[in-house]
What we know:
This protein is of the alpha+beta class. The chain has one domain: Gcn5-related N-acetyltransferase (GNAT) (Aminopeptidase, 3-Layer(aba) Sandwich), CATH 3.40.630.30. The chain contains four helices and four strands. Strand 1 and strand 2 form a beta hairpin. The protein starts with a helix and ends with a strand.
Amino acid sequence: xxxxxxxxxxxxxxxxxxxxxxxxxxxxxxxxxxxxxxxxxxxxxxxxxxxxxxxxxxxxxxxxxxxxxxxxxxxxxxxxxxxxxxxxxxxxxxxxxxxxxxxxxxxxxxxxx
Length: 113
């Protein structure tokens, strides 16, 4: 994940918050992955990682955050894809699978992207 974020830092800059230098370190991502797992366990977020066919490189992410249960049943979607993966259908495939999960398993009614 750290390599994915570093490799795509400049390309996604216009669409992402201004991150601190720590965001691009291995230590940050070791902690962040634990935070994301905790968010999943608490029902507040679901994060998907898009891998290459060999499963040894991160190509992108789909993060469903701010999950609200009850009558609203909604969340926000944030996503990013590596430049070398663009135009190959990876994001479309990831969104089809992950949205199915969010609607069918998480029982959400809407996703705001």
